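Readers of this paper often ask what the protein records in our data store actually look like. Such a record has a labelled line for the sequence and another for the backbone structure tokens. Nothing more is needed to write down the fold, since each code stands for a local backbone conformation. The remainder of this section carries one protein's record, kept here as part of the documentation.
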Amino acid sequence: MRTLGNVSRRIFTYGIALLAVLVTLFPIVWLLNVAVRPQREVFKLPPNLGAPLILDHFQAVWANEGFRNSFMNSVWVTSIGVVLALAIAIPAAYGLSRFRISAKVLIGVWLLLVYMLPEFLFILPMYALYQVVGLYDTHAGLALIYQVHSVPFAIWLIRSFFHDVPGELDDSARIDGCSYFGTLWRIYIPITAPGIAATAILTAIWIWNELTIALALTFSNAHTITVGVSSFRGYAAMRWGEMAAASVVAIVPMLLFALIAQKYIVKGLTLGSVKG
């Protein structure tokens, strides 16, 4: 009976896992199907599985100079945004983790509340400010506004990793004459490197996929790939094939990035789960 119960639980577990995989893969498979089918075959019911596969939509997308610029803009904005987020979050997380700050709890709550606020709340005031200071439709301006959400998220994650570093290492480094910055650089960052890498990856994915802020605070010079994908929506017709191809191109870099760096994500997200 126990063996039968174990088999039943295993079947149930694998069944749930298979269902989850199918649910998450279906939109991607359907998107790819639309991207490689002629426009007239996209919405046929039942679908014509024998329809020819074409790459015309991908060629049209990559021949579009505006979309290529959007792709490179996303690369720049994501790179700048991640570097800024880590440069601010790492020392801030170290301070919140190791220093005695009277308002530490309030700061933590405030960061969490800011992270939970909807993005559109920041658009109108930042639009007016950016027009005045010249940051509208720039890579730097877009990367800066993304810090409103990226920095609280990064601080919360990295602080949890720093909490797991034994305090004795901190004390030993201070006794040996290490400055606070030296302790952070030589002790905390090497030990929590997988967690910091996971934070950088998750931050990069969020910035790469963000649309609302990019749509409001860019026009032509700094519009990102998500805006570039939406540009294939015409006034009179939807270019479904090209939009699907553009979406696939937008997904692939982050997908490859996540697959290559998945070991850091796993190590990083499990770093703070077990206390030594």
Q: What stands out?
A: The chain is about 75% helix and 0% strand. Residues 2-35 form the longest helix (34 residues).
